[in-house]
Amino acid sequence: MDSNLASDPKQTRGRLFPENESAYRTAFQRDRDRIIHSTAFRRLKHKTQVFVAHEGDHFRTRLTHTIEVGQVARTIAKTLNLNSELTEAVALAHDLGHTPFGHVGEDALAAKMAPFGGFDHNAQAIKIVTSLERHYAEFDGLNLTWETLEGIAKHNGPVVGDLPNALSNYAAMHDLELHTHASAEAQVAAISDDIAYNNHDLDDGLRAGLFKETDITDLPIVGACFAAVDKKYPNIDPNRRRHEALRRVFGVMVEDVITTSTNLINNSGAKSAQDIRDLSASVIRFSPTLFADLREIRAFLFENMYRSDRVNLMRDRAEQVVNGLFDTFMNDATLLPKQWSSKGNELKRAGLISDYLAGMTDGYAEKRFAELHSGT
């Protein structure tokens, strides 16, 4: 495949604040390293993916999920002759803006922020890497390259319509061309997220006892993978059987993306990385057949995992904590830590509270809620 389609760090559109680049690392390597060393990245260790931390040490957290996404993304990018460093940077940053308590927490915060410019975790990730990380002497944020920022903002496709304030405010001073598709590398990061969570949610659901292997052997892809393991390894230990089957599910998804995307890229007529952005559709995709299979798997998980009684209990608690903290701080901003305090108007105060809450880990959110509501 034509390597001209890969993003070239030597031809980056640069950083908002110009810097001398490293003699030993490419611009995209530095982006990746800055993301890994950020405070927001470390906090992912204590943020929920689906199950909260106290339910077991073996369930995925936001951090372990992110690492899995990075691994898949590197593999696909290298096979397609794309820039694996940019791909990994976008993959490692893609969940930085997530709230505590997973998507449940995001839904609760988005509802509270609806009158104040909205909340979206991709937009929040941009705010984190451009503003809220404050460690460097010469700028706020991480001062990432344009290509990495673009990938974080629109790895899921063009961003049009009403933008959350966190994204529109930044886009007003640094044009990320939100109306176009992102680079092929960012598209790889996005689909790697899909691959990772489809696979590990099956594993975590089985581990949690929300369903059994016999419940999923009729699902497309999954059933064939279990059958292949049973044929090759009859009477294998049940835990090894599960692992062998699910790693095959993983492999089916990765191979399908590589084959499908290779054909789409070769037939696209694209001759450069910019040509990929200018196309009318993404080029990194599942085949229509596998995409339909994944819809069936997701429907099963939605019914048996994401809407299970066990997860719904967390939903109720997450809404109580996020709503309670937001309302408390809006009613009395003096309860915010000093660095988050503001004498601004209601809109500015809501934005600060949103940033504060979004950055919390599950445990810290619970701790603050208990401190402020101990008498209720």
Description:
This protein has 17 helices and no strands. By secondary structure, it is mainly α. It folds into three domains: 25-171, Hypothetical protein af1432 (Orthogonal Bundle), CATH 1.10.3210.10; 187-308, no CATH class; 311-372, no CATH class. Helix 7 (146-154) packs across helix 9 (184-207) and helix 9 packs across helix 14. The longest helix has 31 residues, at 238-268. It is globular, with a radius of gyration of 21 Å. Mean pLDDT is 91; it is low at 51-58.
Can you give me a brief rundown of this structure?
With 376 residues, the chain is mainly alpha-helical. 60% of the residues lie in helices and 0% in strands. It has 3 domains: 25-171, Hypothetical protein af1432, CATH 1.10.3210.10; 187-308, no CATH class; 311-372, no CATH class.
Question: What is the level-2 CATH architecture name of the largest domain?
Answer: Orthogonal Bundle
Q: Report on the biggest sheet.
A: none
Mean pLDDT over the full residue set: 91
- Remind me, CATH topology of the largest domain? Hypothetical protein af1432
Query: What is the N-to-C succession of helices and strands?
Result: HHHHHHHHHHHHHHHHH
Strands, total number: 0
Distance between the termini: 63 Å
Structural class determined from secondary elements: mainly alpha
Number of domains: 3
Strand content bin? under 5%
Which stretches are low in confidence, meaning pLDDT under 50 for 5 or more residues running?
51-58
- For the record, what CATH class of the largest domain applies? Mainly Alpha
Look at the structure and name the CATH superfamily of the largest domain: Hypothetical protein af1432
Shape: globular
Radius of gyration: 21 Å
Q: If helices are DSSP runs of H or I spanning 4 or more residues, what is the number of helices?
A: 17
